[in-house]
Specification:
The complex is a heterodimer.
Chain A lengths: L3 E4 L3 E4 L4 E5 L10 H9 L7 E7 L7 E7 L4 E6 L11
Antiparallel strand pairs in A: 1-2, 3-4, 4-5, 5-6
Chain B lengths: L22 E5 L2 E5 L5 H7 L6 E2 L6 E2 L12 E4 L2 E5 L10 E3 L26 H4 L4 H14 L10 H6 L3 H4 L7 E13 L3 H12 L4 E4 L34 H14 L3 E4 L2 E7 L3 E7 L20 E13 L3 E3 L12 E3 H11 L6 E5 L7 H8 L3 E6 L4 E5 L6 E4 L2 E4 L2 E4 L3 E3 L2 H5 L4 E4 L4 E4 L6 E3 L23 E3 L4 E2 H9 L5 H8 L12 H12 L3 H4 L13 H5 L12 H6 L3 E5 L2 E6 L9 H4 L16 H12 L1 E5 L4 E6 L3 H8 L12 E7 L5 E11 L2 E6 L4 H12 L7 E4 L4 E7 L3 H6 L16 E6 L2 E6 L8 E7 L3 H12 L4 E3 L2 H10 L34 H11 L5 E8 L10 E4 L2 E12 L4 E9 L8 E6 L2 E8 L9 H4 L1
Parallel strand pairs in B: 1-7, 8-9, 8-13, 9-10, 13-25, 15-21, 16-17, 16-21, 30-40
Antiparallel strand pairs in B: 1-2, 3-4, 5-6, 5-7, 11-12, 12-13, 14-22, 18-19, 19-20, 23-24, 26-27, 28-29, 30-36, 31-34, 31-35, 32-33, 33-34, 36-39, 37-38, 38-39, 41-44, 41-46, 42-43, 42-45, 43-44, 45-46
Helix pairs in contact in B: 6-7, 8-9, 11-13, 18-23, 19-20
The chains are: A mainly beta, B alpha+beta.
Chain lengths: 91, 966
Amino acid sequence: MSFLIPCPNCGERSVYEFRFGAEVKSRPSAGSPSEDWLRYTYVKQNESGVQKEWWYHRMGCRQWFIAVRNTATNEVLSTSLPEEKPGGTSS
Amino acid sequence: MAHPVDPSPPGHPGGASEGVCPITIFFDGKPISAQPGDTVASALYRCGVRIFSRSFKYHRPRGLLCGSGHCPNCLMTVDGIPNVRTCITRVHDGQKVRHQNATPSLENDWLSVSGFFSWLMPVGFYYKTFTHPLVWRGVEPLIRKVAGLGEVSPEPAADAGSESHPEHGSTGAGPAYAHIFWHTEVAVVGGGPAGLLAALQAARSGGRVVLIDDQPELGGHLRFQGKGRHSGEWVMPDGQDLSGLSGPDLARKMAEQVVKEPRIRVLQDSTCFGLYEGRLLGVLQKLAGGQRTANGSPSAGHSQALERLIYLRTQRLVVATGAYEALPLFENNDLPGVMLRSAAQRLAHLHGVQPGKRAVIVSEQADGGPVAADLKVAGVEIEAVIPRRELVSALGRKHIKGIRTTRGDLACDLLVLEGDRVPDAGLIAQAGGSLRWEEGQRAFLPGEMPPFVTVVGEAAGIQPNPEAPLPGPCSKKTFVCVCEDVTVKDLCDAVQEGFDHIQTLKRYSTVTMGPCQGRMCQLSSIAVCARQTGRAMEQTGTTTSRPPTLPISLGSLAGPRHHPVRRTPLHPCHEALGCTWMDMGDWKRPHHYPAPAAEPGASGHGATPAHTSTSHSHHLPTFVEAEYRAVRERVGIIDVSTLGRLDVRGKDAPKLLDKVYTNRLSDMKLGRVRHAALCDEAGILLDDGTVSRLAEDHYFITTSTGNIEFVQQWLEWWMAGAGWCVHVTNVTGGLAAVNVAGPKARETLAGLTGTSLETAAFPYMNCRQADVGGVPCLMLRIGFVGETGWELHFPAEYGEYLWDLVMKEGQPFGIGAFGVETQRLLRLEKKHVIVGVDTDATSNPMDADMAWVAKLDKEDFIGKAAILRFQARLATGQSERLVGFVMEDDSVPLDGSAVVHGGRPAGRVTSCRFSPSIGRGIGLAWIPSALAHAGRHFSIHVNGQLGQARVTFQPFYDPEGKRLRM
């Protein structure tokens, strides 16, 4: 594994500078049924193909960002900082 | 013995023939003189060595075959490093060369009897025989002894290298292997004419170029060919016409241009062993020869390295790896004296060594081609030139004595073969390029390439190979693979047994899997497979090429073994006290300090940390006893600078902390401290620590040692995209911290600060910003060890000053420093759980008896949904619980001991120590819910017996916490 990731702040860098977070999912609202929480917590899509993921630039700008990556080829199609909106993308 | 043909072989930019200092190398302890520019193999050959190794399986004698680093025949142990390809390794004075894989010597190898038992070792024999585990156990050591290549020295390579490198050894052991990261616009692999031209062209168009050549000098095949394949027009990118020069002259002229070009960095003696994703090349550079090229000189920090692994990121890749010769198939084709053309030419041209006296040349050209002229110049008598189809077998036992042809026998001591030329396509395949069979050239050639790869020179296309007949399927002494001793018969048998796909044939017979990675055998194994299965070459296809394309040392991959070490600002204070260190993550922490000298038996217990929790011990180690008494009876001080510290500011800080921590932190009053825990969405405990509120929008958070990076990232993740006004800053490195605790802690600190430390003014679980001994401190009144105490966080630069000051102030009260071991005991008496020690990746706060950290009436927090489920499960009795226990007997189980219930393991002890206050072993353990009732007994496996333990949910020491609040 030695692919490159274009960090939205720092440009193209080795994957070793980064930390993988998780697949991007939307978090159920408080009080959602148990099934929603179970799916959110334990069920991973683990797509063989293009998926949206959280990555963190550990040895660079130390920012969380979202990458669209083809997990089969490790090609990173795009990266972006999370959209700033009240409430956030993850809540 | 051969005499030099040309006393001054052509000089090259590497400086091969400069200087006349005598070089002596030692072969199996015997001194041998070598010439500058020699390789180890050429020096040995000049002195009459003809057997260079013994084969892998049958211990057949093997001599110089390719002379260019492509076959396994010349592997020896050089300066303690096994399996070195001596034909491309330069000599240096004092070099120690040892043979491998033969006992007692290469000439007389007892193990060669294994050749007579070859019928016992048919193809895939280890899949068929010795399958019973007991039989295998008996046979394995024997097979290990007979088979295999060199042995790894138990000494580190740095030491092995320093044997012969006084300049390396004298300055102490530098790392033997270095790692370095480079970026370039163009990487050219191969230093032959095509590579040199490509590098010059790329540099002229303005790119930065790294040129990687696995040979000691630039020029590729030009260096050792008087005339031949390079005839034709040679016009350099700058317009200089070099046509008509001899090979070595052309090589020298081109190399001069390349070395002069500032945009080209030349790496000599460097193998590009793989192409990885992200256009990353793995390049291994040998530095042991001491001859480093001007452009590729290593930086200061790496000057002692024997090998350097270069992680080379390139935007474009030019593959100019050329072609190598494969070994033709005929009986006894592995006999010493059978030599590929390139080896004979190199010996004659580069090293002035006569390869033999009387040679037969196998060539499709009636006059023998350029090699015939080269041999004649070297004084070799040409006995005959025959086409390959007429060659039947080589004759001789330890060295060739003649050959059998279809037209009779010929005597000779050298057989020079024009082998099939095979484009070196390993990197091409790894780049994702396709290889297609070209019937016209009788070779697999690169087809479709990824856009960033260009293939030039012979790697892209070759002169047609002659069509040669394959030997019959019973050829037992016709070796396809010289690495693994695989014969034509073995391959045919394997196909017969059903391994008729080239990939399964490879795995079953191990053909192409040896050190040469298929260079000698890939083409012929495909040809044999094609014939036996009646398929075409194209249909049969190639095996998959994976890195490394050539063997590289494991040490080079491991690298210099740098391990980061973090030291606290108080490190010198502990050192002055003579503490025993322990590693905690990257940190060095005092495990304990030496026991007071007056007490007997101190030395006996000053052992390693591992001995401190010996089972069946009534008594604590003396050092723990002394440290423990200082804290419980007087006052103790411990360095807690390794705690992670976060500064969280902003108007949305309360919102963030409420979302992420399980507790409610938004309603904290200013100046209060709360214990808080982090869970993930699955309700698993991640970390815990203290949270202090310094202002409405300002919190100070501590995390466990080593967990700071994670906690910071965790907090920032949950605020990513939220648009909140909050900043999380890691202030760990900037702050020192000590915990001063004990009945006399107040008196000790009172003399140093104007801030009142009386409980009325500064109660338990409060914090104050205070001046202590002139140092600005954040004082937290908390009680991890169970005594009245303060945790002081202050600027790192005052670390030693404040430590010394507190020690001096506390002297009248009998202050003592305590280490991690005593701290662990003190907290265990308070039944405080350490997240990550007493909990693991399956532990949640409910089961861990820490329900109080989760404020389930908060609307939402990370992990709430899961924790609610765990809460509901508590009632069902299906969970494991973390409980405190007291031993009913004198035993003290080791950490990790098994809890036994109904004759089965049913849980585990996470921490256990002898408690001086209880006089028994105490600890924490995960036990089945059914047993988790106060006063209930359960069994723990202690030293082969079952010890009885009693469950308790109360702290063992000061259960009401009165001492904390005094």
